[in-house]
């Protein structure tokens, strides 16, 4: 029995030893202990602050009944449309304008540097006070914008925050105003990495500015632009501040996006599971984005 | 460095674990006399100071410790939801918003505090007691799950100088409901003629945010005779023609005033404080709002403070007194609290009339007592014209409890802002008040179906 057992388990034991050696790599003795000691805090933090909350969230939003009641809610239906509009318009407009602005800031001259410094201010200042200020400025009755409007045209301006589309548009504008400088700087860095020789050679060949953009900038920046757009889409999907502090999700809950609806459902309705489900419903959009982003990041290693 | 081995790491880990285990009994023992309390930050600094004094006096008298956190309204609400969901709860917190006492009692997540309420039961108003007696969906019976400690009602705040500037006197304000609020439309028209472009008659909270729109709707509902939409037995009566007629009227008056330009256009997106802001900036001539925080907020500006008139509710259109719907603020002890005994002991101390009175006076009388004997024995409550009017209305006048006390379903009706959504249907979606009422009834019936109350 004993010998049979040894024969039976010997290959298994050998493969275990091989696996053990593979895991240890070239580490020996106390080196291995130190490696474990160094990795334990990271693993502990990762498990505590990433794995556990993610699993807890998945567990909280795991009941199909939650999604039945969520999808039947007219506020959720509006919210889903708002989220898609917010992503589609805000991200693309912001990235395209950032691309144009990065070209402008490539110009030489001290005044361009000064302008760039002023231009990045919206991104540098804290988000909450600025969004609250925008909310006040947009007040249709006594806000700064409509007061100026009245003084110039002797007419009352529109009620920016009292209708769905104007309010959503105001939130999209605020988001672009806040985040366009950041992406401009990123794309500016990308442009600066393009060797000057290419432009010099193009000039020798008589290429105009437009042709230089089409044949040099566009192909070399394409991957960076795409990666930035994907990243921005992921960030914007989680953007709570632009909506919450500019429109408050109103009027009549007509301008919520998934990030703000989740908070409303969780804390204002005191239904945290429903709130988690609202946020989780973005996963079918979020997961493909992350996968595409990862693939593009691999591709980008060989470009630029 | 060479001394560190796998064994030494393991030894150290076991040592730490053993040390932690041995230390636990001491920590637990130390916590036995300590209660953790989450308290909402006051509207005025004086309120926080008043609470701190209550705590200091209690600690001195009892030897127990109250570890309190004073937290702004919205974050406290989020902390409560998170705590109750996760089970990591403090020993005591306020019902924030008020209706969570009904929701959490229904879910069996609150400790029965009947023994605390019993200590002062004879002194409380009936409305206050009803506001704290909620139905437990697990045990299937009604009991005290909150300890009421202050009350609040909606009252009228009026800028006297604006009324006079329009050529009227405060004495001209009519006594019956519709005529009362119509009066301010005339004030607005006259002020507009004098070039005041952005002045509006009425500061009605016709929004879908916060607690104010729910209360505003209920005051109109009760004024129009719809008081019995939910009765003490927890039953819903939306099929009662009298209730339906009142609901339609309550959906009609504020929305018509809004559409006709007598309520600021931004009111459909206001938060709870925005009507106060609009009133303070004299954008609205009058405001129907809870507590006298509107006045207390500017108490240091004597000229403005004295320019406001605080006025109780007008009579119904038929000339009968209208009861004020009183929201009693409750203290709650969640299930899972580690120091229930200390929390209860603190509450028994806190609701003693003299302690409760000093706490409320420290808060400048923004909220009122819910024990009439307190105001009857202390002339302070009548020494100021705002306080006097408010005390007469909220403590000595007729009051009714909130509907969620009768059935927790109504708490969900409020958190979902079903009535505000009906207002929106009328104001922005062109729906008739009748159609909006029917749509709201359908939703309310769906919600009530989820909260079956067994009659005892």
Taking all Cα atoms into account, the compactness measure Rg of chain B is 25 Å
The span between the termini of chain B is: 73 Å
- At the first level of CATH, the class of the largest domain in chain B is Alpha Beta
Low-confidence stretches of chain A: none
Order of helices and strands of chain A: HHHHHHHHHHHHHHH
Number of helices of chain B: 20
Number of discrete domains of chain B: 2
Indicate the CATH class of the largest domain in chain A: Mainly Alpha
What's the total number of strands of chain B?
13
Overall body shape of chain B: globular
Query: What structural category do the secondary elements of chain B indicate?
Result: alpha/beta
The strand order across the widest sheet of chain B is 2-1-3-12-6
- Kindly report the average pLDDT value of chain B: 92
Average pLDDT reading of chain A: 89
Instruction: List how many beta strands of chain A DSSP finds.
Output: 0
Report the helical percentage of chain A: over 70%
Oligomer: heterodimer
CATH superfamily of the largest domain in chain B: Periplasmic binding protein-like II
Largest sheet of chain B: 5 strands, mixed
| CATH third-level topology of the largest domain in chain B | D-Maltodextrin-Binding Protein, domain 2
Q: Please, could you describe this protein's structure?
A:
The complex is a heterodimer of chains A (304) and B (456). With 304 residues, chain A is mainly α. Chain A has helices at 2-24, 30-60, 64-72, 74-104, 110-119, 121-124, 127-137, 144-153, 164-192, 196-204, 209-237, 241-244, 258-268, 272-280, 283-300. Chain A has 2 domains: 1-60, no CATH class; 70-300, MetI-like fold (Orthogonal Bundle), CATH 1.10.3720. In chain A, 32% of the residues are buried. Chain B is α/β, with parallel strands linked by helices and 456 residues long. Chain B has 2 domains: 33-152 and 328-400, D-Maltodextrin-Binding Protein, domain 2, CATH 3.40.190.10; 154-325 and 416-449, Periplasmic binding protein-like II (D-Maltodextrin-Binding Protein, domain 2). Chain B is built from 20 helices and 13 strands. In chain B, strand 4 (133-136) and strand 5 form a beta hairpin. The chains are: A mainly alpha (304), B alpha/beta (456). Chains A and B meet through helix 2 and helix 13 of A and helix 3 and helix 19 of B.
């Amino acid at each position: 029995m004993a010998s049979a057992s040894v024969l039976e388990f010997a290959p298994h034991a050998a493969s275990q030893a091989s696996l053990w050696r593979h895991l240890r790599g070239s580490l020996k003795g106390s080196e291995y202990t130190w490696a474990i000691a160094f990795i334990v805090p990271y693993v502990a933090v990762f498990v505590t602050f990433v794995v556990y909350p993610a699993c807890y969230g998945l567990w909280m939003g795991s009941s199909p009944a939650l999604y039945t009641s969520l999808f039947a809610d007219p506020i959720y239906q509006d919210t889903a449309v708002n989220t898609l509009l917010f992503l589609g318009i805000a991200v693309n407009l912001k990235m395209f304008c950032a691309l144009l602005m990065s070209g402008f800031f490539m110009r030489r001259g001290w005044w361009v540097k000064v302008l760039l410094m002023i231009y990045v201010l919206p991104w540098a200042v804290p988000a909450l006070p600025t969004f609250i200020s925008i909310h006040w400025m947009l007040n249709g009755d006594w806000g700064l914008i409509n007061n100026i409007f009245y003084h110039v045209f002797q007419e009352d301006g529109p009620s920016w925050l009292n209708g769905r589309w104007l309010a959503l548009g105001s939130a999209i504008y605020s988001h672009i105003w806040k985040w366009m400088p950041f992406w401009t700087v990123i794309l500016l860095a990308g442009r600066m990495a393009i060797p000057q020789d290419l432009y010099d050679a193009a000039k020798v060949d008589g290429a105009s500015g437009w042709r230089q953009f089409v044949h040099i900038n566009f192909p070399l920046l394409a991957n960076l632009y795409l990666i930035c757009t994907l990243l921005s889409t992921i960030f914007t999907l989680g953007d709570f501040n632009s909506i919450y502090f500019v429109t408050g999700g109103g009027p009549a809950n007509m301008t919520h996006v998934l990030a703000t609806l989740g908070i409303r459902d969780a804390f204002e309705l005191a239904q945290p599971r429903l709130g988690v489900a609202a946020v989780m419903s973005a996963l079918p959009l979020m997961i493909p984005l992350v996968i595409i982003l990862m693939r593009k990041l691999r591709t980008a290693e060989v470009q630029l | 460095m060479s001394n560190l081995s796998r064994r030494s790491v393991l030894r150290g880990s076991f040592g730490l674990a053993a040390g932690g285990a041995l230390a636990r009994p001491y920590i637990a023992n130390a916590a036995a006399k300590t209660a953790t309390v989450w308290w909402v930050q006051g509207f005025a600094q004086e309120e926080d100071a008043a609470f701190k004094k209550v705590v200091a006096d209690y600690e001195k008298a009892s030897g127990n410790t109250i570890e309190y956190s004073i937290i702004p309204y919205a974050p406290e609400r989020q902390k409560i939801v998170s705590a109750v969901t996760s089970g990591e709860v403090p020993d005591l917190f306020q019902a924030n918003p008020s209706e969570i006492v009904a929701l959490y009692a229904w879910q069996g997540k609150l400790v029965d505090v009947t023994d605390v309420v019993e200590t002062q039961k004879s002194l409380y108003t009936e409305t206050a007691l009803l506001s704290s007696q909620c139905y437990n969906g697990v045990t299937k019976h009604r009991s005290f799950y909150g300890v009421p400690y202050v009350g609040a009602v909606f009252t009228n705040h009026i800028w006297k100088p604006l009324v006079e500037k329009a050529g009227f006197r405060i004495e001209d304000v009519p006594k019956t409901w519709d005529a009362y609020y119509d009066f301010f439309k005339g004030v607005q028209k006259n002020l507009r003629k004098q070039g005041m472009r952005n002045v509006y008659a009425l500061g009605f909270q016709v929004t879908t945010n916060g607690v104010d729109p729910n209360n505003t709707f209920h005051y109109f509902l009760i004024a129009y005779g719809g008081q019995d939409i939910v009765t003490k037995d927890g039953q819903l009566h939306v099929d009662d023609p009298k209730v339906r007629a009142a609901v339609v009227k309550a959906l009609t008056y504020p929305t018509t005033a809004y559409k006709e330009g007598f309520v600021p256009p931004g009111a459909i997106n206001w938060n709870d404080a925005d009507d106060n802001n609009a009133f303070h900036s004299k954008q609205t001539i009058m405001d129907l709002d809870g507590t006298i925080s509107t006045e207390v907020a500017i108490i240091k500006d004597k000229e403005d403070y004295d320019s406001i008139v605080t006025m109780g509710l007008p009579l119904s259109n038929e000339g009968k007194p209208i009861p004020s719907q009183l929201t009693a603020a409750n203290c709650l002890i969640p299930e899972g609290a580690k120091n229930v005994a200390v929390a209860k002991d603190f509450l028994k101390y806190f609701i003693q009339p003299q302690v409760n009175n000093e706490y409320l006076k420290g808060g400048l009388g923004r909220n009122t007592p819910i024990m009439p004997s307190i105001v009857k024995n202390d002339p302070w409550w009548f020494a100021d014209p705002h306080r006097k009017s408010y005390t007469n209305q909220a403590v000595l006048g007729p009051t009714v409890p909130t509907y969620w006390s009768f059935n927790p379903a109504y708490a969900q009706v409020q958190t979902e802002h079903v009535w505000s959504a009906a207002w929106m249907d009328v104001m922005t979606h062109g729906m008739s008040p009748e159609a909006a009422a029917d749509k709201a009834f359908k939703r309310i019936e769906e919600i009530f179906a989820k909260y079956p109350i067994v009659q005892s």
